[in-house]
């Protein structure tokens, strides 16, 4: 009998359920529609989050980071997130203008559990809110106001499997291309990769905020 790859494509909820079985009680009970005090503690301890958005030009998932507590829990239904200077692509913000749905994944170094938040975002340039996020005398460009719809923690298996918080191998950086190397290749050497890499650390320090 001939087997084809199409035979094994999972395309229905029933097929998916047959692969994974019943959802555990804890997996259902941990999801709430507000920021529980324990979930607030995770958000306030996190220095890093991934923001996912969707828009007419496609999907986007991009990092956000600052000292722990950089995301303010205004109340149990509202998060405030600073949008600082970057590459000016503003992919996430452009998506939010047309589709306010967002998803956030908060990580805490050394902690296996992560926190997921789903909600709807709006963008504000309110001067008073910008002042709340001043860093080194610099204000963010704008602030995201996220109205929370679902919050739950994710178990530590992915972090454990990836060994994410364990020290990296001494030669790890030498095994991957640098930013300059990638840009030089992608632009057919129109961008000087060595010069880009040489200037990058000082440029990042000077433009961090």
Automatic annotation (TrEMBL):
Superkingdom, natural source? Bacteria
Q: Which Pfam families match?
A: PNPOx_N
Q: Which residues form the Pyridoxamine 5'-phosphate oxidase N-terminal domain?
A: 36-155
NCBIfam families documented for this protein: PPOX_FMN_DR2398 (TIGR04025)
Descriptive protein name: Pyridoxamine 5'-phosphate oxidase family protein
Q: Which organism is it from?
A: Undibacterium flavidum
């Amino acid at each position: 009998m001939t087997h084809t790859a199409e035979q094994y494509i999972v395309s229905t909820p029933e097929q998916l359920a047959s692969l994974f079985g019943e959802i555990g009680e804890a997996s259902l009970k941990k999801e709430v529609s507000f920021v529980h005090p324990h979930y607030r503690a995770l958000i306030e301890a996190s220095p890093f989050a991934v923001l996912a958005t969707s828009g007419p030009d496609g999907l986007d998932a991009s990092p956000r980071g600052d000292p722990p507590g950089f995301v303010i829990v205004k109340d149990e239904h509202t998060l405030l997130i600073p949008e600082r200077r970057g590459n000016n692509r503003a992919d996430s913000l452009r998506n939010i203008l047309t589709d306010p749905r967002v998803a956030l994944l908060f990580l805490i170094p050394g902690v296996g559990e992560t926190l997921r938040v789903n909600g709807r975002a709006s963008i504000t340039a309110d001067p008073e809110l910008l002042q709340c996020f001043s860093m080194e005398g610099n204000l963010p460009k704008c602030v995201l106001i996220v109205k929370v719809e679902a919050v739950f923690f994710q178990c530590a298996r992915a972090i454990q499997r990836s060994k994410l918080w364990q020290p990296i191998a001494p030669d790890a950086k030498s095994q991957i291309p640098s930013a300059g190397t990638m840009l030089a290749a992608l632009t057919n050497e129109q961008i000087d990769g060595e010069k880009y890499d040489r200037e990058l650390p000082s440029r990042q320090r000077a433009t961090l905020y």
